[in-house]
Design brief:
377 residues; rod-shaped; alpha+beta; 5 helices
Length: 377
């Protein structure tokens, strides 16, 4: 009985040991499974000195995945940012190139405008100068007209004073001469307006010109006006000049075209004038040339002969108190009684009579009183 009890105890002990072993194994399996669950990947690395086991847990993989995602996301963001920056840079470069192009255009336009401004300024100055020239020319024409009118008026006064005396000798000729100045004045006044019926001279107002076109238009207008005025005035002046040249009986100018005054007028024998001897005219030297002598006014030849002092000479009576004398001629080309006009050739220069060289001795008398020919230039 005792042995049975001992046997029974031994069996119980073995059963307990067996159960303990099974529990230990179960525990180890559970721990192994737990470890297996905790280490998702196990790497065994072998080397000369042994081996090494690396265990990768879920946390490691999650961290690696997150890191990879961050790297990939950062790379993608960086790539997108780079592309955007590259696009902005390209746009900026295109805008800069466009701005440079516009700047070049503006620079070229500025240069063109500067050149145009210089040309415009030069054009303005040239037109202004031309305008002033035209104004001066028109003023000169007007002054010439007025001088001619004054000369005719003076002739008219002289002719009027001598009309009574001249009428006694030749009534028709005196009347013609007395009316000559009036006729010339009429030609001058009427002829100067014959083109348009009114005075063609206009006052030019000097203003600040703003446009070259307006200046050009005014200049063209002035040119047309000046052409009309000049043509009309030339015709009138020519008619008056020809009339005066043919019929004027007042001595004007000298009888030679080329001359040098060698002895001046000295009726009182003033020692300070020329050689100091009495000289009632002027000597016109032709420097050894024989030249034609022309009448200085219209009139009638009253003397044409030879004199011991004067040599061959011509004397003309102009019918208004004036007489002129031309002496030391090589030959006379007119005779007593001939009627001459101003400018007609009456003799040739020479050195006859009391003369030391080829010249023309020229005298003017008014009512018997010797006149200085310089006063009648």
């Amino acid at each position: 009985m005792a042995e049975n009890e001992n046997f029974s105890k031994d069996n119980n002990t073995e059963n307990i040991l067996t159960e303990n072993t099974e529990l230990t194994e179960n525990t180890e399996n559970t721990q192994a499974e737990a470890k297996a669950d905790k280490h998702l990947i196990t790497l065994h690395l072998s080397h000369k000195n042994g081996s090494k086991t690396l265990h990768l847990r879920k946390g490691h993989l999650i961290a690696a995945s997150v890191a990879a995602l961050l790297v990939l996301g950062g790379g993608a963001y960086a790539g997108v940012s780079y592309l955007q920056a590259q696009s902005r840079l390209t746009n900026s470069q295109e805008q800069l190139a466009e701005m440079e192009k516009e700047n070049r255009k503006l620079t070229q336009r500025t240069e063109i405008l500067e050149n145009e401004n210089e040309e415009y300024t030069q054009h303005i100055n040239e037109i202004q100068m031309k305008t002033e020239e035209l104004e001066n020319k028109m003023t000169e024409l007007e002054n010439t007209k007025q001088s001619l009118a004054e000369e005719i008026n003076n002739m008219s006064g002289t002719s009027t004073d001598s009309t009574a005396t001249a009428s006694a000798e030749n009534g028709d000729t005196a009347c013609a001469e007395a009316n000559l100045s009036t006729a010339c004045l009429s030609i001058l006044e009427n002829g100067s307006t014959s083109q348009s019926g009114e005075k063609t001279f206009t006052t030019i107002v000097t203003t600040s010109y703003n446009k070259a076109t307006s200046l050009s238009a005014q200049l063209d207008k002035m040119n047309v006006m000046l052409d009309l005025t000049g043509a009309s005035f030339v015709d009138v002046a020519t008619n008056v000049t020809e009339t005066l040249a043919q019929y004027s009986n007042v001595p004007m100018g000298y009888p030679l075209e080329e001359y040098v005054i060698s002895t001046e007028f000295n009726p009182d024998g003033n020692a300070a004038i020329s050689d100091g001897r009495v000289h009632k005219g002027v000597d016109l030297s032709t420097r050894s040339q024989i030249l034609p002598i022309s009448a200085t006014a219209a009139g009638t030849v009253v003397e044409a002969t030879y004199h011991d002092d004067y040599g061959y000479y011509v004397k003309i009576d102009h019918g208004n108190g004036f007489t002129t004398l031309y002496a030391h001629n090589s030959e006379n080309l007119v005779e007593v009684g001939d009627t001459v006009k101003k400018g007609d050739v009456i003799a040739m220069t020479g050195s006859t009579g009391m003369s030391t060289g080829i010249h023309c001795h020229y005298e003017i008398q008014l009512n018997g009183i010797y006149q200085n020919p310089k006063d009648y230039e």
